[in-house]
């Protein structure tokens, strides 16, 4: 009987942890998100910091848990990142600069094939002021491409698996913007 209770206890604990939301820096990352009739689960979350500033809180959402960044990047399946701005140090100009830096790191400086699409994405972030509390979601689905939402409103859609690979690589590629954040998103 004790063994049976222990087994149920372990199963219950694993179920709770698999369905748990995550709160970091006063931002709650939901356990699940749904886009286009696809449910994605929180793989991991973290805070993007630079120096002493906590810039944004971000979560990586996948169809199933995965700790292999390279495999995730290459996957042609639905995934998303959701991040909330938490510092007034972020504005349209330095967001664009950070995105460019991220793509350069993610692609090892080889952005020429996706440069036009990167510039299209940058327009999304420069078209409106960025404020503390703004919520951005970047959702990739194989049939639509990478959709960029700001505060729940679709702002742009950018096609191409190669673009998605470089985009998600910003956070989880071998040469990501932050190795500690990468570990958190990959739940390592």
Characterise this structure.
It is a single chain. The protein is of the alpha+beta class and 188 residues long. The chain has one domain: 3-Layer(bba) Sandwich (Chalcone isomerase). Helices cover 37% and strands 31% of the residues. The chain has six helices and nine strands, in the order H-E-E-E-E-E-H-E-H-H-E-E-E-H-H. The strands form two sheets. It has a seven-stranded antiparallel beta sheet with strand order 3-4-5-6-7-8-9. A hairpin with a 2-residue loop joins strand 8 and strand 9. The longest helix has 17 residues. The protein is globular, with a radius of gyration of 17 Å. The protein starts with a helix and ends with a helix. The N terminus is likely disordered.
Summarize model confidence as the mean pLDDT.
89
CATH fold group: Chalcone isomerase
The largest sheet has its strands arranged as: 3-4-5-6-7-8-9
How many structural domains?
1
Count of beta strands: 9
Major β-sheet annotation: 7 strands, antiparallel
Distance between the termini: 35 Å
- CATH architecture identity: 3-Layer(bba) Sandwich
Q: Give the helix proportion (percent range).
A: 25-40%
Proportion of strand residues: 25-35%
Shape: globular
Structural class: alpha+beta
Number of helices: 6
- What is the alpha-carbon Rg in Å? 17 Å
| SSE series | HEEEEEHEHHEEEHH
CATH class: Alpha Beta
Low-pLDDT ranges: 1-18
């Amino acid at each position: 009987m004790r063994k049976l209770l222990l087994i149920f206890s372990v199963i219950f604990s694993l179920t709770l942890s698999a369905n748990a939301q995550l709160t970091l820096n006063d931002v709650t990352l939901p356990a699940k998100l749904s886009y286009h009739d696809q449910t994605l689960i929180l793989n991991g979350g973290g805070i993007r910091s630079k120096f002493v500033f906590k810039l944004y809180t971000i979560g990586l959402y996948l169809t199933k848990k995965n700790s292999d960044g390279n495999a995730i990047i290459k996957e042609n399946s639905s995934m998303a990142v959701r991040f909330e701005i938490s510092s007034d140090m972020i504005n349209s100009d330095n967001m664009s600069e950070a995105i460019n830096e991220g793509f350069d790191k993610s692609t090892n400086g080889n952005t020429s094939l996706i440069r036009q699409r990167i510039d299209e994405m940058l327009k999304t972030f420069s078209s409106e002021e960025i404020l503390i509390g703004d919520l951005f979601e970047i959702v990739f689905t194989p049939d639509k491409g990478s959709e960029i939402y700001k505060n729940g409103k679709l702002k742009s859609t950018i096609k191409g698996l190669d673009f998605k690979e470089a985009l998600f690589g910003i956070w989880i590629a071998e040469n990501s913007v932050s190795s500690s954040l990468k570990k958190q998103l990959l739940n390592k």
